Structure formats: C-alpha cells, structure tokens
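Example S7 (structure tokens).
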C-alpha cells in the first residue's frame, strides 16, 4: 500500500512542487498551508511520515511536532528549516523530529530523506558497512579494521562513515564540510585536510584497508585496496 505523507508547508510554490513530486513517486500526499489545520488532520492519524515546515502560520511547526509527540503519534517527522537558523534545527530535533532539511534544498534530497526515514521506521536498516578489511558497525558507531576497533574521534568517525556511505564516489570538500558541520557553522576546510590526513594514517599499513585518494581540485574518494 502506498505510504501517506502529511505535508505542512505554507510556501505555495514549494508545496505544489513537493505534492507533484511525491505523488509521482507513488506517495499519497495531504498538503496543508498552516499549522493549525495540518495538526487537526495529523491528530486523526493515518499517515506514515510528516514533512513539516517550522515557519508556518497559525501554529508554528515546532508546536505541531510537540503536539504530535504528546499525542503519542510516533511516525517519522522531517522538519524543514531556514538554512541560517541552526538553533531551530536543534529545537525541532529536541521536540521529537527525526531529521531536518535546511532550505533551500534539492527536491531529490527531500525524497531521499523521506525514503530513508520510512525504511528506518520499518526496521529495514543496514547495521554495518564494509569495504575490504574496514567495517563500520552503525549501531555501535565503531569502525573495525582487520577486526580491531579503531580509535577515532567523533569527527573522524563521522567523516569515515560518510566516505563509506559514498565509497567510490568523489566527494568535494564542500560536500564533506556540509555533512560534518551542519549543526555548528565552523566550516574551515583546512580541518577536512587535517582529518583526512589522520584517517589515512590510521588506515595505512592494515592489509585490505581501503585508501583515501585525493583528486586534486575535486575532492576525495574512498577506494578498495589494490592488493
Ligand atoms: Ca514557511
């Protein structure tokens, strides 16, 4: 059966684009332009995921999220925030949202997030990623190299996880900075170089370990070991 999406977005253009795209992808979408009528509909239940803009007339998105959680509705909720206001994202996640997307975003990114949240809600989540002798246990958030836990800082782990998720693809420094620094704003790209250098050292010497390649001017790529 098709999944039902509750979409609360007051920007008419964006709401229309999302309605069209989500419907094209096989979702049944209920769209509302304000928080009060959206919440009324949402409290009736019968939806599988909520996409909720935080800046809504009549009732702010944050209040909608809180009210849904207070009512015991536990479907995944994706909030839409203004790019500049990271404190909103934190407040939204604290209120019980599962994920956020900062505006402006690519419409395909929203579809990808919706799909991922629904898969997670159904328990269809991979518990590990591996490439050669490197394995990441996503539940434990620990990377293993030749079966041994790697000592990694939080940022090293995040970066390695992102490289593994995108193994074989070229990632620009700005992709990496977007991923690492979404919540805090410090976007010094030298930090990426430093972290890459440290990860390389930690992977070096292990047999079957993937290698981090530098593609001058383009970015980085995680590749299986040659040997
Ligand atoms: Ca808005």
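Recovered sequence:
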């Amino acid at each position: 059966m098709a999944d039902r999406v509750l979409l609360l977005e007051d920007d008419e253009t964006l709401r229309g684009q999302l309605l069209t795209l989500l419907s094209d992808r096989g979702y049944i979408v209920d769209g509302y332009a304000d928080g009060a009528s959206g919440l009324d509909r949402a409290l009736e239940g019968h939806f599988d995921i909520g996409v909720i803009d935080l800046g809504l007339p009549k009732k702010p998105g944050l209040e909608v999220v809180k009210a849904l959680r207070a009512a015991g509705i536990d479907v995944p909720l994706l909030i839409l925030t203004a790019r500049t206001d990271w404190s909103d994202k934190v407040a939204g996640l604290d209120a019980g949202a599962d994920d956020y997307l900062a505006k402006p975003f690519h419409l395909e990114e929203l579809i990808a997030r919706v799909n991922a949240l629904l898969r997670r809600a159904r328990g269809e989540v991979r518990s590990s990623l591996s490439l050669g002798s490197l394995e990441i246990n996503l539940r434990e958030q620990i990377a293993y190299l030749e079966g041994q836990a790697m000592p990694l800082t939080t940022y090293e782990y995040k970066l390695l996880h992102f490289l593994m998720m995108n193994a074989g693809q070229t990632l620009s420094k700005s992709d990496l900075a977007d991923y690492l620094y979404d919540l805090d704003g410090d976007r010094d790209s030298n930090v990426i170089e430093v972290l890459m250098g440290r990860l390389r050292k930690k992977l070096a010497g292990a047999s079957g370990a993937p290698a981090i390649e530098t593609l001058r001017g383009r970015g980085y790529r995680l590749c299986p070991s040659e040997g």
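Notes on this example. The first strand starts at residue 4 and ends at 8.
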